[in-house]
Write a structure and sequence with these properties.
By secondary structure, the chain is an alpha+beta fold. Strands 1-2-3-4 form a four-stranded antiparallel sheet, with helices on one face. Helix 1 packs antiparallel against helix 2. The longest helix has 29 residues. It is rod-shaped, with a radius of gyration of 32 Å. The relative contact order is 0.11. It comes from Bacillus licheniformis.
């Protein structure tokens, strides 16, 4: 089996050095195109900051599930009704708060309770969850 170098030498011997040069240029061009293709593919695979993450990770539904779990844990055996999202407040640059209200029916008593979920607005890491009756 001949290597590319041997083939080029064979062409050169027969006076066809141009064919070898064209073949080598085509190989280099294919390498360049593959490199460009993978660079563009890599760049396009990164979502735009703020666009993708805001839609997926910033939704109140994520914090709602966390608040609901905390309410169920605090008021075990109670019936939770009238669940409502009250809104979002930016506490400071590193802390945002989502507030939820629920009516708790426990041992014949009915009262409202709030769940506050504190999280980092950029990383979406949970900072704290506060549950308290009103």
């Amino acid at each position: 089996m001949q290597t590319a170098k041997n083939v080029c030498m064979t062409f050169a011997v027969y006076g066809q050095a141009n064919v070898c040069t064209i073949h080598a240029e085509r190989i280099e061009m294919k390498k360049r195109y593959c490199t460009y293709f993978f660079c563009i593919l890599t760049l396009l695979s990164f979502p735009a900051k703020g666009h993708f993450q805001t839609d997926v990770f910033d939704a109140p539904e994520r914090w709602e599930r966390i608040a609901w779990s905390a309410l169920e844990e605090k008021y075990k055996g109670a019936k939770l009704e009238d669940y409502e999202y009250l809104g979002r407040t930016q506490v400071n640059d590193e802390e945002t708060k989502d507030v939820f209200r629920v009516t708790v029916n426990q041992e014949g008593k009915s009262f409202s309770a709030h769940a506050e979920v504190y999280f980092h607005p950029v990383t979406n890491a949970i900072i704290n969850v506060n549950i308290f009756p009103l």
